[in-house]
Amino acid sequence: MRFLHTADLHLGRSFPFTDSALRAVGKRDRFETFRNILRRADRYEAEYVFLVGDIFEQKKISREEVDFALAEMANCSATILLLLGNHDFTLYPYLTERVPENVYLFNQEGSDVFTDERHRIDFHGVSWSRDSHHKILEIDPTGLREGFRHVLLHHGNWTGGDGYFPVDANILPYFDYIALGHVHKPILYENKLQMCGTPEPLDHTDRGRLGIVSGALTDHLETEYISLARRSVIGENFHRRGDADDEAILRRVREFSDDGTRIYTIAITGAYSGVFDASIRATLEEMEIPYEIRWARDLPKIVKALEKRHANDQFGTFLEKVKAHPMDDDLRERVYDLGIRAVLGDEYDS
Predict the structure, then answer these.
(1) Which of 174, 279, 180, 253 is nearest to 223 (CA)?
(2) Domain count of the chain?
(3) Distance CA 29, CA 35 (A)
(4) Residues 174 and 59 grouped into a single domain
(5) What is the CATH number of the domain that holds 45?
(6) Which of 27, 50, 258, 347 is deepest in the core (most CB within 10 A)?
(7) Do residues 152 and 179 lie in contact, with contact meaning Cβ atoms separated by under 8 Å?
(8) Is the domain of 264 the same as that of 165?
(9) Which superkingdom, per the lineage (predicted)?
């Protein structure tokens, strides 16, 4: 029995780019990666594709996009075993009425089983029904059928009580393969126990190899981790002490290159500058390089504190007017930055 194991695609979501055009590209990347997984199943002649939770991002995906994903599943030659996680469980009623014939959706009412009589395999799983599960998934081994092999699909952590539906470690000896989703980094606990991770980066922490698990369960189990991500995250860290560092940082930024497979995530500590932030963004956009910039300074928190401190003076009035004025968030942050720097001076960077 050949299979592919994936999870945490979060279709409908994008990498957190500031630029709306880049967000649209990031969103398309995820759908294209999903299509590639299904096409790989056809080429690999996989009999099953395991979709182990958070395939959709319920707060961001449209019904038309869900229908598109279901149509892609219908065109796949494999049987698709789908369960829902903490980011797509609210789609259960919509999906139950629309899943194609080759898709089995695990229910939300306790442990569910899909049986392959030809291979004599029972596939066990349960879809989430809420956004946190402060309990451990426990399975009574006496209820597992003799003469059958057993595969568990589960969206949750391997052991540990953290509110994300961990698995009771004592069940490991009774299963031939346990396909996990939820953690975005791939984790090979052992050959028959694997967290596949997300196949496409969702934020700056998703670095390294990202892909899917390809496997075959015959008289023994063989698995292989296949890199599949369309883009990889490249991290760059800078410390800015003041204006004197700006040219050196920009010089390094201008050395970035992109062949259509990279996302640069830039972390900057030290003295925040809205003007310099705009300069970096303009440079990267001119180079047409996908990027994300994260400053260590928490500007919204600073603004909130200053609003309280200056509630009854002219600076407080300035902050209120900036907050109320119709402008996009990037421009608002730059106006805040210039105004706060003009009033606080060196204290702002301390």
Answers:
(1) 180
(2) 3
(3) 10
(4) yes
(5) 3.60.21.10
(6) 50
(7) yes
(8) no
(9) Bacteria
Do 153 and 42 share a structural domain?
Answer: yes
Point out the domain boundary residue: 227, 250, 273: 227
Do residues 205 and 154 share a domain?
yes
Range of the domain at 275: 231-296
CA-wise closest residue to 40 among 93, 80, 4, 15: 4
Mean pLDDT of 301-321: 89
Predicted TM-score of the model (pTM): 0.82
What is the percent of the chain with per-residue pLDDT over 70, rounded to a whole number?
A: 96
Pairing relationship of beta strands 177-181 and 193-195 according to DSSP bridges: parallel
Same-domain pairing of 44 and 98: yes
Q: Specify which residues 95 forms β-bridges with.
A: none
- Kindly report, residue by residue over 101-110, the tens digit of the pLDDT: 999 999 998 8
Nearest to 272 by CA among 241, 249, 244, 251: 241
Whether 38 and 177 map to the same domain: the answer is yes
- 3-state SS of the chain is CEEEEECCCCECCCCCCCCHHHHHHHHHHHHHHHHHHHHHHHHHCCCEEEEECCCECCCCCCHHHHHHHHHHHHCCCCEEEEECCCCCHHHHHHHHCCCCCCEEECCCCCCEEEEECCCCEEEEECCCCCCCECCCECCCHHHCCCCCEEEEEEECCECCCCCECCECHHHHHHCCEEEEECCCCCEEEECCEEECCCCCCCCCCCCCCCEEEEEEECCCEEEEEEECCCCEEEEEEEEECCHHHHHHHHHHHCCCCCCCCEEEEEEEEECCCHHHHHHHHHHHHHHCCCEEEEECCCHHHHHHHHHHHCCCCHHHHHHHHHHHCCCCHHHHHHHHHHHHHHHHHHHHHC
Q: Give the integer Cα–Cα distance in Å for 235 and 320.
A: 36
Residue 337: what pLDDT? 80
Residue with token string 């050949």 = 2
Q: Within this chain, do residues 171 and 207 fall inside the same structural domain, yes or no?
A: yes
